[in-house]
Design a protein that fits this description.
single chain, alpha/beta, Aldehyde Dehydrogenase, Chain A, domain 1, 2 domains, seven-stranded mixed sheet, five-stranded parallel sheet, 15 helices, 39% helix
Length: 480
């Protein structure tokens, strides 16, 4: 099926007339859909539409905006089966992972639909008589949202829902590998009654479409999720106009396992965090930092865990699906070679599947032991199912190793020692910290974001904090 851009309330072909194939990573010969290879002119048209609709949408009462967003959530729920299947075929997630992601998008729409009715100001006592002093919150204006392929419906939802709820207009540029799923999300918003131009969608390359969406002087804010390298480009492009920028980027997330931990529990926590979603989550656990007293026992257990996982097309709902693309698969296999060359011990996995799944982008879940903290495999983000096990001699050393990377997104500790748990929460450099729980998985009503190179450290996403990025304060002195 040939899909189109959505600009000013109309589905349109790109000005180029060219398309890009979005393929099924489990069976790459299968084209899920053809999406537009858009041009700078298409992106400019989307910004035109968003700017034209901005004033009227900002003036729309919050409860009215919320009603449309709630209806979008309802429609998304009724189309659950079809959109879940699209997500599975396009991104490669297992059916369970995909339907969980879709449910998150439904919940996000419903959450921010309720918030739309509550967005307002704060009254403060004045130091003067006969003065009413309050702070109003107004929409920033025109927003660009640039999203990755690994959560092709949840991430667009958690950017668009708060943006629209607070009265902003938006243009979404999804990654090509998840573009069909994102198009279905925008279709839901259109069917829910969103006015023309309030939400637009343009697919295509970042160096053309993305450049316009970050540099056009009518764009007031840019929200980006993706790699650190591209995030830096987005930030620099938006900086000259002093646009408001929100960046959420990668992670090199540790799980510290201490001697008081139950090995079976620790194995489940680390394994699900490392190999769930084929390791293609920015919060995935890529480093198990394990105390030497239980190191060997843990390695045996995590190897058995990895070898027990079923692998196959997401539509069959195995434990682990394919990589999203041949390039991502190649990147994972490159790191397998790099780790071995650096002296790490390959305990299990590391191979592309060569059986009946050989045509797809499937790789075995992989565990390395004898990993030193300064090895590339322990320092650089590997967006795949590779776990590095690092042995440490103390809790203090574990903290040093956990913090000894440039990124700081998610981190967890598995321990039954309350002192260790409290120290870890206080001292680890991560925006999301968990005790006795996997590094992946987020609740939508609390802030999400990283530290260090994982984030711009400006604004958080989700929860009430997710509204801050899309609003600006106006302080009013009303003297009567």
């Amino acid at each position: 099926m040939a899909y189109q851009n959505f600009i000013g309330g109309e589905w349109r072909d790109s000005a180029s007339g060219e398309t890009i194939a979005s393929r099924n990573p489990a069976a790459p010969d299968e084209v899920v859909g053809e999406v537009p290879q858009s041009t700078a002119a298409d992106a400019t048209a989307a910004v035109d539409a968003a700017a034209a609709a901005s004033e009227e949408w900002a003036a729309t009462p919050g409860p009215e905006r919320g009603a449309i967003i709630r209806e979008a959530g309802n429609l998304l729920d009724t189309r659950r089966e079809d959109i879940t299947e699209t997500l599975v075929r396009e991104e490669g997630k297992t059916w369970s992972e995909a339907t969980g992601e879709l449910q998150r998008a439904v919940d996000i729409f419903h959450y921010y639909a309720s918030k739309a009715a509550d967005i307002g100001g704060e009254v403060r006592a004045s130091s003067a008589r006969e003065r009413y002093l309050y702070v109003d919150r107004e929409p920033v204006g025109v927003v660009s949202a640039i999203t990755p392929w690994n959560y092709p419906i949840a991430i667009p939802a958690w950017k668009l829902a708060p943006a629209l709820a607070t009265g902003n207009t938006a243009t979404l540029k999804p990654a090509t590998a998840g573009a069909v799923t994102a198009i279905e999300l925008v279709r839901v918003l259109d069917d829910a009654g969103l006015p023309d131009g309030v939400c637009n969608l343009v697919t295509g390359p970042g160096d053309t479409v993305g450049d316009v969406l970050t540099t056009d002087d009518r764009v007031d804010a840019v929200s980006f999720t993706g790699s650190e390298a591209v995030g830096d480009i987005v930030y620099q492009a938006a900086a000259p106009d002093q646009k408001r920028v929100q960046l959420e980027m990668g992670g090199k997330n540790p799980t510290v396992v201490m001697p008081s931990a139950d090995i079976d529990e620790a194995t489940d926590i680390v394994g699900s965090g490392a190999f769930g979603t084929t390791g293609q989550s920015c919060t995935a656990c890529s480093r198990a930092v394990v105390h030497e007293d239980i190191h060997d026992e843990f390695v045996d257990a995590i190897v058995a865990y990895a070898e027990s996982l079923s692998i196959g097309p997401g539509i069959d709902d195995p434990d682990m699906g394919p990589h999203v693309s041949e390039a991502e698969l190649a990147g994972t296999l490159d790191y397998v070679e790099i780790a071995q060359n650096e002296g790490a011990t390959l305990e299990t996995g590391g191979n592309r599947l060569d059986d009946e799944l050989a045509d797809g982008y499937f790789v075995e879940p992989t565990v390395f032991a004898d990993v030193e903290p300064d090895m590339r495999i322990a320092q650089e983000e590997v967006f795949g199912p590779i776990l590095s096990v690092i042995s440490v001699g103390s809790f203090e050393e574990a903290l040093d190793v956990a913090n000894g990377v440039t990124q700081g997104l998610s981190a967890s500790v598995v321990t039954d020692d309350l002192r260790e748990a409290h120290r870890f929460v206080r001292e680890v450099d991560a925006g999301v910290v968990k005790t006795n729980e996997k590094t992946t998985g987020l609740e939508l009503h609390v802030p999400f974001g990283g530290m260090k190179a994982s984030s711009s450290e400006t604004y958080r996403e989700q929860g009430d904090a997710g509204l801050d990025f899309y609003t600006i304060s106006k302080t009013v002195y009303l003297n009567y």
